[in-house]
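I had to read the description of the data format several times before I understood it. In essence, backbone conformation is discretised, so a fold becomes a row of integers matching the chain in length. I therefore recommend that a typical entry be quoted early in the introduction. For illustration, here is how one protein appears when written out as sequence plus structure tokens.

***
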Amino acid sequence: MKKSYTLLTVLLSAMFFGNMGCVSGSTEKMKNAVVETDEVEKNVTEAKIEYLADMEDYMKEINTKISENRQSITEFKVRVSNSKKEGKVEYEKRINDLEMKNKDVKRKMDEYKTESKDKWSAFKIEFSHDMDELSNALKDLTVNSMK
């Protein structure tokens, strides 16, 4: 009988300590999963902060360019209105067109809503292209008027 109690005690001890190893392994896996989740959340948060900072910087840059365009248009209007050159009406029409385009890009920028980083990248590329065209048109107008 004593042997069976000893055998039973050994078997129960082995089962108990065996289960303890499984529990501690599961606990360790849970801790690792929590740490990994925290790291992923931290990376997502950092990426979102970076994305929003990029948006803010770009919008400041564009607003500066829009203001510069507005100033150039105003200066050019004054120059054309004081001149007696032929084609004054044509220049005024081109100036008004550029002024409308400048207002349109301003409106487009103001109406942009934060969506996703991919959509922001696409918007930024298209918008930069539009701004470059507007800037080039303003430069061309000024160069042509100087001739």
